[in-house]
Amino acid sequence: MLRVENLAVSYGRSQVLFDVSLAVEKGEFVTVIGANGAGKTTLMKAIMGLLRPFQGRIVFRGEDITARPPWYRAELGIGYVPEGRRVFPDLTVEENLRIGAWRRAASFKRSCERIFTIFPRLAERRHQLSKTLSGGEQQMLAIARALVLEPELLLVDEVSMGLMPLLVNRSFKVLRELNREGVTVLLVEQNARLALRAAHRGYVLETGRIVLSGPAAELSANEMVKKAYLGG
Amino acid sequence: MYEQVVAVNAGIFMLLAMSLNIITGFAGQPNLGHAAFFGIGAYTSALLVAKAKAGFWLALPAAGLVAGLTGMLLGLISVRVREDFLAVTTIGINFVLVAVFQYVPFFGASLGLVVPPATVFGRRLDTGGFLILLLVLNILVYLLCLRVRFSWLGLALGGIRNDEQATASLGYNVNRFKVFAFTIGTFIAGLAGSVYAHFMGFIMSTDFSFPVSVSIMAMAVLGGLGTISGPLLGAAILTLAPEIFRFVADYRMLVYGGLLVLMMRFLPQGLLGENSPLANLLERRRPGPAGRVAPGGGNRG
Question: How far does B273 lie from chain A, in Å, by closest CA?
Answer without folding.
Answer: 11
